Protein: N-acetyltransferase
Organism: Mucilaginibacter terrigena
Amino acid sequence: MDTILFESTQLNIRRFSPGDHEFVFELLNTPGWKKFIGDRNINTTDDAIAYIVNGPVASYELRGYGLWLAELKSTGQPIGMCGPVNRDYLDSPDLGFAFLPGFEGKGLAYEACMAALSYIKQNYTADSLYAITIPENIRSQRLLERCGFAQNGLITPSGDIPLLLYRLNLQ
């Protein structure tokens, strides 16, 4: 089992490893992920492994942080991801998160995000943290606001669709 970075009441949060490919394959192919985040073309086990290695694992090595896996303490079942992501078009990290449909609406994403924010404040030096979402993703907007983020306008990275930009002061 991989080392737990931090925990909350119901969740253990740890780094991803290539062995998490089945979970990544499932999550990135959910209708919600594809609608609100976008199709990452994860069509095979090898695609899922490459996503983990070139995404979260590469970020851990380069920056010391990245998306983390959220799993239930009671069973060890992976249910989501949450953590800081670097985006070329933002001057501070962005808090990303996504959960399997069967675990949405149960307060687990909020629990994971609040635990991640506490961990980030204690272990990293960023003054602020951003979050982005498409305007249609009302649930993510509500979660961000509940976590203390404030809407900070629109951003259109590299001519893509406009995204709502949220910001949280960490000081």
